[in-house]
Amino acid sequence: MPEGPEIRRVADRLGRVLIERPLEQVWFAFESLAEHAPTLCNARVRAVDSWGKALLIRFDNGQVLYSHNQLYGVWRISRKARVPSTKRILRVELVTDTHAARLYSASDISLWHEDTLGDHPFLSRLGPDLLTHQVSPNWLEARLKSSRFKKRNLGGLLLDQSLVAGIGNYLRSEILFYAGLLPRRRPADLSDAELARLATCMLECTQGAYREAGVTNRPEWRAPLIEAGHPRAIWRHAVFNREGRRCFYCDSLIEKRTIASRRLYLCPTCQQ
């Protein structure tokens, strides 16, 4: 499943072709949405945001289209007259005078108003998005130390979307590696320096994955592998999906564990 950085990049791509362009055609597959399609014709998209793994298309009439890709959903952008060749099922179509944005295979789609968006059953449970909302390291430190989160193991806590939205499985492993922390540690047990490092790594890993299309490995570690012709899967991450391979920093073997029912990768030497 795509994580926050991937959804933010989708939002950026949609924004480039939709924002401030009148919609010539709006189509929804679901009957509950189809009756509202005429209200969006000739409307303009004001913004395209991401909130964790959800995507929000905001229109100038106050309506907001919510979608969550889940496992199979995908947005495709093409020139107006070109229909992508795919076996996926079309769910949403937004067409301007030049481009079309189409959502395929997703099932979690709904239309809201800005005034009622806070009542959304999924969004109302989310913490802030590290890419969309203004989150500082100091704010993150305070949140991690709050009574709600401080006594929970980091291995499970980082996947809790009510802490912050958008961190998924690969980011969890990478954040803990760069912070030098084992997944069994708790915010309550961390020193001030460790807590500050964790908060900084949460932001930097997420922002770096956004800038570099999901790559979290350091440039100096991945450059020799790229030059040697290795595929992206080999050099993309520092520890995630690298079980049995050497740590780029200390040369120890990367280990794989199952925590919170999902795989986690770590360096037993760097993470003490």
TrEMBL record:
One of its GO terms (molecular function) is class I DNA-(apurinic or apyrimidinic site) endonuclease activity. The keyword Nuclease applies. Residues 2-90 form the Formamidopyrimidine-DNA glycosylase catalytic domain. Its EC number is 4.2.99.18. Residues 238-272 form the FPG-type domain. It comes from the Bacteria. Keywords: DNA damage, DNA repair, DNA-binding, Endonuclease, Glycosidase, Hydrolase, Lyase, Metal-binding, Multifunctional enzyme, Nuclease, Zinc, Zinc-finger. InterPro entries: FPG_cat, FPG_N, H2TH_FPG, Ribosomal_uS13-like_H2TH, Znf_DNA_glyclase/AP_lyase. Belongs to the FPG family. This is DNA-(apurinic or apyrimidinic site) lyase. It comes from Larsenimonas suaedae. The lineage of its organism: Bacteria, Pseudomonadati, Pseudomonadota, Gammaproteobacteria, Oceanospirillales.
